[in-house]
Amino acid sequence: MIESISASSLIKTVRAGFAVIEDHRASNKTISLSDTLMSGFAMFSLKDSSLLEFDQRRQAKDENLKAVYGIENIPCDTHLRTILDSVEPSGLRPIFKDVFRLVEQSQVLEQMVFMNKYYLLSLDGSGYYCSKKVHCASCLQKQHKNGETTYYHQLLAAAIVHPDSAVVIPLAPEPIVKQDGETKNDCERNAAKRFLAQLRQDHPDLPLIIIEDALSANAPHIRELQAHDLRYILGVKEGDHAFLFDYVEKAHQAGQTTVYEQQIKGVIHRFRFINQVPLNASNQDLLVNFIEYWEISPSQTQHFCKITDFTVTKFNVFELMRGGRTRWKIENETLNTLKNQDYHLEHNYGHGQQYLSLVFVLLMMLAFLVDQVQQLASSLFQAVLKKEGSRKRLWDHMRALFYTLPFSSLDDIFRALLY
User: Fold this and answer.
1) CA 80, CA 356: separation in Å to the nearest integer?
2) What confidence tens digit (pLDDT) does each residue in 118-129 have?
3) Do the Cβ atoms of 113 and 70 come closer than 8 Å?
4) What is the DSSP code string of 307-374?
5) Is 1 a residue whose pLDDT tops 50?
6) Which of 146, 264, 266, 308 makes a 20 to 30 Å CA pair with 183?
7) Is 44 helix (H, G, I), strand (E, B) or coil?
8) What global pTM score does this model have?
9) CA distance 418 to 416
10) Share of the chain above pLDDT 70, in %
11) What is the distance between the alpha carbons of residues 374 and 368, in angstroms, rounded to a whole number?
Protein backbone atom coordinates (compact mmCIF):
# COMPACT_ATOMS: atom_id res chain seq x y z
CA MET A 1 0.00 0.00 0.00
CA ILE A 2 1.32 3.44 -0.92
CA GLU A 3 1.69 5.67 2.13
CA SER A 4 1.28 9.45 2.04
CA ILE A 5 4.35 11.37 3.18
CA SER A 6 3.83 14.48 5.29
CA ALA A 7 5.86 17.67 5.46
CA SER A 8 6.50 16.94 9.14
CA SER A 9 8.04 13.53 8.44
CA LEU A 10 10.27 15.01 5.73
CA ILE A 11 11.45 17.86 7.97
CA LYS A 12 12.09 15.35 10.77
CA THR A 13 14.26 13.30 8.38
CA VAL A 14 16.25 16.36 7.33
CA ARG A 15 16.73 17.50 10.92
CA ALA A 16 17.92 14.02 11.96
CA GLY A 17 20.47 14.12 9.14
CA PHE A 18 21.78 17.50 10.28
CA ALA A 19 22.11 16.24 13.85
CA VAL A 20 24.76 13.63 12.96
CA ILE A 21 27.04 16.00 11.03
CA GLU A 22 30.18 16.51 13.09
CA ASP A 23 30.71 20.00 14.50
CA HIS A 24 34.40 20.94 14.60
CA ARG A 25 33.89 24.23 16.42
CA ALA A 26 34.94 24.89 20.01
CA SER A 27 32.83 23.34 22.76
CA ASN A 28 31.66 26.71 24.10
CA LYS A 29 29.45 27.41 21.05
CA THR A 30 26.06 28.96 21.78
CA ILE A 31 24.19 27.77 18.66
CA SER A 32 24.43 24.17 17.51
CA LEU A 33 25.43 23.21 13.98
CA SER A 34 22.14 21.37 13.46
CA ASP A 35 20.17 24.50 14.44
CA THR A 36 22.26 26.56 12.02
CA LEU A 37 21.78 24.11 9.15
CA MET A 38 18.07 23.87 9.91
CA SER A 39 17.82 27.65 9.87
CA GLY A 40 19.39 27.73 6.41
CA PHE A 41 17.05 24.97 5.26
CA ALA A 42 14.05 26.87 6.67
CA MET A 43 15.04 29.97 4.70
CA PHE A 44 14.85 28.03 1.44
CA SER A 45 11.79 26.06 2.53
CA LEU A 46 9.96 29.36 3.08
CA LYS A 47 11.41 30.78 -0.17
CA ASP A 48 12.86 33.89 1.49
CA SER A 49 14.59 35.95 -1.17
CA SER A 50 17.53 36.98 1.02
CA LEU A 51 19.18 36.43 4.37
CA LEU A 52 17.91 39.85 5.41
CA GLU A 53 14.32 38.76 4.80
CA PHE A 54 14.91 35.59 6.80
CA ASP A 55 16.51 37.58 9.61
CA GLN A 56 13.46 39.83 9.74
CA ARG A 57 11.30 36.71 10.00
CA ARG A 58 13.52 35.45 12.82
CA GLN A 59 12.93 38.65 14.75
CA ALA A 60 9.20 38.83 13.99
CA LYS A 61 8.06 35.20 14.24
CA ASP A 62 10.81 33.03 15.70
CA GLU A 63 8.29 30.85 17.58
CA ASN A 64 7.03 29.47 14.26
CA LEU A 65 10.56 28.81 13.06
CA LYS A 66 11.24 26.93 16.27
CA ALA A 67 7.98 24.96 16.24
CA VAL A 68 7.76 24.11 12.54
CA TYR A 69 11.44 23.34 11.91
CA GLY A 70 12.46 22.14 15.37
CA ILE A 71 15.08 24.86 15.88
CA GLU A 72 16.09 25.72 19.45
CA ASN A 73 18.34 28.71 18.75
CA ILE A 74 18.18 30.69 15.51
CA PRO A 75 21.37 32.49 14.44
CA CYS A 76 21.33 36.01 13.02
CA ASP A 77 22.30 36.37 9.37
CA THR A 78 25.97 37.15 10.06
CA HIS A 79 26.37 34.27 12.50
CA LEU A 80 24.60 31.89 10.12
CA ARG A 81 27.02 32.75 7.31
CA THR A 82 30.04 32.37 9.60
CA ILE A 83 29.03 28.92 10.85
CA LEU A 84 27.94 27.50 7.49
CA ASP A 85 31.11 28.67 5.74
CA SER A 86 33.14 25.95 7.47
CA VAL A 87 30.66 23.09 6.94
CA GLU A 88 32.11 20.38 4.71
CA PRO A 89 29.55 20.05 1.84
CA SER A 90 29.99 16.27 1.57
CA GLY A 91 28.37 15.96 5.00
CA LEU A 92 25.04 17.00 3.49
CA ARG A 93 25.00 14.28 0.81
CA PRO A 94 23.64 11.50 3.08
CA ILE A 95 20.49 13.55 3.79
CA PHE A 96 19.47 13.38 0.13
CA LYS A 97 19.81 9.62 0.42
CA ASP A 98 17.76 9.58 3.66
CA VAL A 99 14.87 11.45 2.02
CA PHE A 100 15.09 9.21 -1.04
CA ARG A 101 14.94 6.12 1.19
CA LEU A 102 11.76 7.50 2.77
CA VAL A 103 10.25 7.83 -0.71
CA GLU A 104 11.28 4.29 -1.63
CA GLN A 105 9.83 2.83 1.57
CA SER A 106 6.49 4.55 1.01
CA GLN A 107 6.36 3.00 -2.50
CA VAL A 108 5.43 6.33 -4.12
CA LEU A 109 8.58 6.14 -6.24
CA GLU A 110 6.80 3.45 -8.24
CA GLN A 111 4.91 6.28 -9.94
CA MET A 112 8.19 7.18 -11.66
CA VAL A 113 8.93 3.71 -13.10
CA PHE A 114 9.74 3.76 -16.83
CA MET A 115 9.60 0.78 -19.22
CA ASN A 116 8.30 -1.48 -16.42
CA LYS A 117 11.56 -1.50 -14.46
CA TYR A 118 13.81 1.52 -14.75
CA TYR A 119 14.02 5.10 -13.54
CA LEU A 120 15.11 7.90 -15.85
CA LEU A 121 17.92 9.98 -14.38
CA SER A 122 18.60 13.25 -16.19
CA LEU A 123 21.95 15.04 -15.73
CA ASP A 124 22.93 18.59 -16.61
CA GLY A 125 25.38 21.26 -15.48
CA SER A 126 24.44 24.73 -14.24
CA GLY A 127 26.11 27.80 -12.81
CA TYR A 128 24.97 29.31 -9.52
CA TYR A 129 27.54 31.98 -8.64
CA CYS A 130 29.51 34.54 -10.66
CA SER A 131 31.59 37.57 -9.67
CA LYS A 132 34.53 39.63 -10.88
CA LYS A 133 35.59 40.48 -7.33
CA VAL A 134 34.55 38.04 -4.61
CA HIS A 135 36.12 34.59 -4.89
CA CYS A 136 37.58 31.66 -2.96
CA ALA A 137 40.15 28.91 -3.54
CA SER A 138 37.47 26.63 -5.05
CA CYS A 139 36.24 29.15 -7.64
CA LEU A 140 36.55 28.34 -11.31
CA GLN A 141 38.18 31.14 -13.28
CA LYS A 142 37.71 32.63 -16.73
CA GLN A 143 40.34 35.01 -18.04
CA HIS A 144 39.07 37.72 -20.40
CA LYS A 145 41.03 39.40 -23.19
CA ASN A 146 40.85 42.73 -21.37
CA GLY A 147 42.73 41.23 -18.42
CA GLU A 148 39.70 40.84 -16.14
CA THR A 149 38.94 37.58 -14.35
CA THR A 150 35.48 36.14 -13.76
CA TYR A 151 35.13 33.80 -10.79
CA TYR A 152 32.27 31.33 -10.79
CA HIS A 153 30.80 28.13 -9.34
CA GLN A 154 28.93 25.37 -11.15
CA LEU A 155 27.34 22.05 -10.26
CA LEU A 156 26.21 18.89 -12.01
CA ALA A 157 22.54 18.42 -11.17
CA ALA A 158 20.68 15.11 -11.40
CA ALA A 159 16.99 14.29 -11.04
CA ILE A 160 14.75 11.29 -11.54
CA VAL A 161 12.16 12.27 -14.14
CA HIS A 162 9.25 10.73 -16.03
CA PRO A 163 7.59 11.70 -19.35
CA ASP A 164 4.14 11.82 -17.73
CA SER A 165 5.05 13.59 -14.49
CA ALA A 166 5.72 17.23 -13.68
CA VAL A 167 7.47 16.11 -10.50
CA VAL A 168 11.22 15.51 -10.42
CA ILE A 169 13.18 13.85 -7.62
CA PRO A 170 16.61 15.51 -7.37
CA LEU A 171 19.60 13.58 -6.08
CA ALA A 172 22.61 15.16 -4.40
CA PRO A 173 24.36 17.33 -7.01
CA GLU A 174 28.08 17.11 -7.70
CA PRO A 175 29.96 20.42 -7.34
CA ILE A 176 32.13 21.54 -10.24
CA VAL A 177 34.81 23.39 -8.30
CA LYS A 178 38.57 23.65 -8.40
CA GLN A 179 39.84 20.54 -6.64
CA ASP A 180 42.40 20.65 -3.81
CA GLY A 181 45.93 21.00 -5.16
CA GLU A 182 44.76 21.64 -8.73
CA THR A 183 45.54 24.76 -10.73
CA LYS A 184 43.27 23.96 -13.68
CA ASN A 185 39.51 24.38 -13.68
CA ASP A 186 37.30 21.41 -12.90
CA CYS A 187 34.89 20.41 -15.67
CA GLU A 188 31.52 18.74 -16.13
CA ARG A 189 33.11 15.55 -17.47
CA ASN A 190 35.25 15.09 -14.35
CA ALA A 191 32.29 15.94 -12.14
CA ALA A 192 30.26 13.26 -13.95
CA LYS A 193 32.91 10.63 -13.13
CA ARG A 194 32.73 11.54 -9.45
CA PHE A 195 28.94 11.70 -9.53
CA LEU A 196 28.52 8.25 -11.12
CA ALA A 197 30.89 6.62 -8.61
CA GLN A 198 29.04 8.21 -5.70
CA LEU A 199 25.67 7.38 -7.26
CA ARG A 200 26.45 3.69 -7.22
CA GLN A 201 27.68 3.89 -3.62
CA ASP A 202 24.43 5.54 -2.54
CA HIS A 203 22.10 3.49 -4.75
CA PRO A 204 23.93 0.29 -5.76
CA ASP A 205 20.88 -1.60 -7.03
CA LEU A 206 18.67 1.16 -8.41
CA PRO A 207 17.88 0.36 -12.10
CA LEU A 208 18.65 3.61 -13.86
CA ILE A 209 18.66 4.95 -17.42
CA ILE A 210 20.92 7.99 -17.75
CA ILE A 211 19.58 10.61 -20.17
CA GLU A 212 21.86 13.44 -21.29
CA ASP A 213 22.53 15.82 -24.16
CA ALA A 214 24.96 15.35 -27.05
CA LEU A 215 27.98 16.63 -25.09
CA SER A 216 27.88 13.38 -23.10
CA ALA A 217 27.73 11.07 -26.13
CA ASN A 218 31.44 10.28 -26.11
CA ALA A 219 33.30 7.03 -25.64
CA PRO A 220 34.93 7.71 -22.23
CA HIS A 221 31.60 8.72 -20.68
CA ILE A 222 29.71 5.76 -22.16
CA ARG A 223 32.37 3.40 -20.82
CA GLU A 224 31.92 5.01 -17.38
CA LEU A 225 28.19 4.34 -17.61
CA GLN A 226 28.83 0.72 -18.56
CA ALA A 227 31.30 0.29 -15.71
CA HIS A 228 28.64 1.41 -13.22
CA ASP A 229 25.90 -0.81 -14.71
CA LEU A 230 23.90 2.16 -15.97
CA ARG A 231 21.74 2.10 -19.10
CA TYR A 232 21.63 5.21 -21.28
CA ILE A 233 19.74 7.26 -23.88
CA LEU A 234 21.94 10.11 -25.10
CA GLY A 235 21.41 12.84 -27.65
CA VAL A 236 23.66 13.02 -30.69
CA LYS A 237 24.18 15.79 -33.28
CA GLU A 238 25.44 15.45 -36.82
CA GLY A 239 27.97 18.25 -36.36
CA ASP A 240 29.55 16.48 -33.36
CA HIS A 241 29.18 12.88 -34.55
CA ALA A 242 29.93 13.04 -38.28
CA PHE A 243 31.32 9.48 -38.47
CA LEU A 244 28.21 8.01 -36.82
CA PHE A 245 25.77 9.87 -39.07
CA ASP A 246 27.77 9.02 -42.20
CA TYR A 247 27.80 5.34 -41.15
CA VAL A 248 24.03 5.34 -40.61
CA GLU A 249 23.37 7.04 -43.94
CA LYS A 250 25.47 4.45 -45.81
CA ALA A 251 23.68 1.67 -43.93
CA HIS A 252 20.36 3.21 -44.93
CA GLN A 253 21.40 3.30 -48.59
CA ALA A 254 22.28 -0.38 -48.27
CA GLY A 255 18.83 -1.15 -46.83
CA GLN A 256 20.14 -1.97 -43.35
CA THR A 257 18.05 0.53 -41.36
CA THR A 258 14.45 0.14 -40.25
CA VAL A 259 11.96 2.89 -41.08
CA TYR A 260 8.78 2.97 -39.02
CA GLU A 261 5.92 5.44 -38.85
CA GLN A 262 2.74 5.86 -36.81
CA GLN A 263 0.14 8.59 -36.57
CA ILE A 264 -1.41 9.64 -33.26
CA LYS A 265 -4.05 12.38 -33.02
CA GLY A 266 -3.00 14.01 -36.27
CA VAL A 267 0.73 13.93 -35.47
CA ILE A 268 3.04 11.74 -37.54
CA HIS A 269 5.86 10.00 -35.64
CA ARG A 270 8.51 8.81 -38.08
CA PHE A 271 11.52 6.74 -37.00
CA ARG A 272 14.66 5.45 -38.63
CA PHE A 273 16.83 3.17 -36.49
CA ILE A 274 19.67 0.69 -36.64
CA ASN A 275 21.36 -1.42 -33.97
CA GLN A 276 25.04 -2.09 -33.31
CA VAL A 277 26.83 0.70 -35.12
CA PRO A 278 30.24 2.16 -34.12
CA LEU A 279 30.16 5.42 -32.16
CA ASN A 280 33.10 7.00 -33.97
CA ALA A 281 36.20 6.23 -36.03
CA SER A 282 38.54 5.93 -33.05
CA ASN A 283 36.15 3.77 -30.98
CA GLN A 284 34.73 1.34 -33.51
CA ASP A 285 34.60 -1.37 -30.89
CA LEU A 286 32.05 0.68 -28.93
CA LEU A 287 28.74 -0.22 -30.57
CA VAL A 288 25.58 1.77 -29.97
CA ASN A 289 21.99 1.65 -31.20
CA PHE A 290 20.87 4.69 -33.21
CA ILE A 291 17.41 6.30 -33.40
CA GLU A 292 16.40 9.17 -35.67
CA TYR A 293 12.97 10.70 -35.13
CA TRP A 294 10.72 13.24 -36.81
CA GLU A 295 7.60 14.58 -35.09
CA ILE A 296 5.46 16.05 -37.86
CA SER A 297 2.44 18.13 -36.94
CA PRO A 298 0.43 20.57 -39.09
CA SER A 299 2.33 23.50 -37.56
CA GLN A 300 5.93 22.25 -37.32
CA THR A 301 8.40 19.40 -37.73
CA GLN A 302 10.81 18.51 -34.94
CA HIS A 303 13.86 16.32 -35.43
CA PHE A 304 15.82 14.40 -32.77
CA CYS A 305 18.58 11.79 -32.77
CA LYS A 306 19.52 9.49 -29.90
CA ILE A 307 21.87 6.62 -29.15
CA THR A 308 21.11 3.94 -26.57
CA ASP A 309 22.27 0.58 -25.30
CA PHE A 310 18.73 -0.81 -25.54
CA THR A 311 18.15 -2.96 -28.62
CA VAL A 312 15.72 -0.87 -30.67
CA THR A 313 12.61 -2.46 -32.20
CA LYS A 314 9.32 -1.20 -33.62
CA PHE A 315 7.75 -2.12 -30.29
CA ASN A 316 9.98 0.04 -28.06
CA VAL A 317 11.31 2.82 -30.30
CA PHE A 318 8.50 5.25 -29.42
CA GLU A 319 9.00 4.72 -25.69
CA LEU A 320 12.78 5.03 -25.95
CA MET A 321 12.41 8.35 -27.74
CA ARG A 322 9.90 9.55 -25.13
CA GLY A 323 12.41 8.67 -22.43
CA GLY A 324 15.27 10.42 -24.21
CA ARG A 325 13.25 13.59 -24.77
CA THR A 326 12.44 13.74 -21.06
CA ARG A 327 16.01 14.99 -20.54
CA TRP A 328 14.73 18.57 -20.80
CA LYS A 329 13.00 18.19 -17.42
CA ILE A 330 16.37 18.66 -15.71
CA GLU A 331 16.36 22.13 -17.28
CA ASN A 332 12.71 23.19 -17.20
CA GLU A 333 11.38 21.34 -14.17
CA THR A 334 14.57 21.49 -12.09
CA LEU A 335 17.14 24.18 -12.87
CA ASN A 336 14.73 26.75 -14.31
CA THR A 337 12.35 26.16 -11.39
CA LEU A 338 15.22 26.78 -8.97
CA LYS A 339 16.15 29.96 -10.82
CA ASN A 340 12.72 31.43 -11.53
CA GLN A 341 10.16 30.08 -9.04
CA ASP A 342 11.22 31.59 -5.71
CA TYR A 343 14.19 29.31 -4.91
CA HIS A 344 16.62 31.98 -6.21
CA LEU A 345 19.37 29.61 -7.38
CA GLU A 346 21.47 32.37 -8.93
CA HIS A 347 20.99 34.83 -6.05
CA ASN A 348 24.09 35.35 -3.93
CA TYR A 349 23.10 34.55 -0.34
CA GLY A 350 26.78 34.76 0.59
CA HIS A 351 30.01 33.46 -0.89
CA GLY A 352 32.26 33.04 2.15
CA GLN A 353 35.89 32.01 2.23
CA GLN A 354 35.45 28.23 2.21
CA TYR A 355 32.17 26.43 1.47
CA LEU A 356 29.34 28.89 2.15
CA SER A 357 28.13 29.35 -1.43
CA LEU A 358 27.97 25.59 -2.06
CA VAL A 359 26.38 24.82 1.33
CA PHE A 360 23.60 27.30 0.59
CA VAL A 361 22.96 25.65 -2.79
CA LEU A 362 22.82 22.18 -1.19
CA LEU A 363 20.34 23.42 1.42
CA MET A 364 18.28 24.95 -1.38
CA MET A 365 18.32 21.64 -3.27
CA LEU A 366 17.23 19.81 -0.12
CA ALA A 367 14.29 22.20 0.29
CA PHE A 368 13.41 21.64 -3.38
CA LEU A 369 13.62 17.87 -2.87
CA VAL A 370 11.25 18.07 0.11
CA ASP A 371 8.78 20.15 -1.93
CA GLN A 372 8.92 17.75 -4.88
CA VAL A 373 8.42 14.70 -2.67
CA GLN A 374 5.36 16.34 -1.16
CA GLN A 375 3.98 17.05 -4.61
CA LEU A 376 4.51 13.39 -5.50
CA ALA A 377 3.47 11.76 -2.24
CA SER A 378 1.45 14.04 0.05
CA SER A 379 -2.31 14.11 -0.55
CA LEU A 380 -2.55 17.23 1.65
CA PHE A 381 0.08 19.11 -0.35
CA GLN A 382 -1.49 18.02 -3.63
CA ALA A 383 -4.90 19.28 -2.51
CA VAL A 384 -3.67 22.69 -1.34
CA LEU A 385 -1.53 23.13 -4.47
CA LYS A 386 -4.57 22.38 -6.61
CA LYS A 387 -6.62 24.92 -4.67
CA GLU A 388 -3.94 27.62 -4.86
CA GLY A 389 -3.39 27.03 -8.56
CA SER A 390 0.38 27.52 -8.61
CA ARG A 391 3.39 26.92 -6.40
CA LYS A 392 4.25 30.63 -6.34
CA ARG A 393 0.79 31.50 -5.00
CA LEU A 394 1.09 28.69 -2.45
CA TRP A 395 4.49 29.97 -1.23
CA ASP A 396 3.15 33.54 -0.95
CA HIS A 397 0.17 32.48 1.16
CA MET A 398 2.30 30.09 3.23
CA ARG A 399 4.68 32.92 4.15
CA ALA A 400 1.78 35.25 4.95
CA LEU A 401 0.31 32.78 7.44
CA PHE A 402 3.75 32.07 8.86
CA TYR A 403 4.13 35.76 9.68
CA THR A 404 0.73 36.28 11.29
CA LEU A 405 -0.41 33.18 13.20
CA PRO A 406 1.22 30.54 15.42
CA PHE A 407 1.59 27.05 13.91
CA SER A 408 3.17 23.83 15.07
CA SER A 409 3.92 22.33 11.64
CA LEU A 410 3.88 22.99 7.90
CA ASP A 411 1.04 20.49 7.66
CA ASP A 412 -1.05 22.76 9.88
CA ILE A 413 -0.31 25.71 7.58
CA PHE A 414 -1.37 23.65 4.56
CA ARG A 415 -4.59 22.63 6.32
CA ALA A 416 -5.30 26.26 7.14
CA LEU A 417 -4.84 27.19 3.48
CA LEU A 418 -7.02 24.29 2.35
CA TYR A 419 -9.91 24.65 4.79
Assistant:
1) 10
2) 999 999 999 888
3) no
4) EESSPP-TTTHHHHHHHHHGGGHIIIIIIHHHHHSSS-TTS-S---SSSHHHHHHHHHHHHHHHHHHH
5) no
6) 146
7) helix
8) 0.94
9) 5
10) 98
11) 10
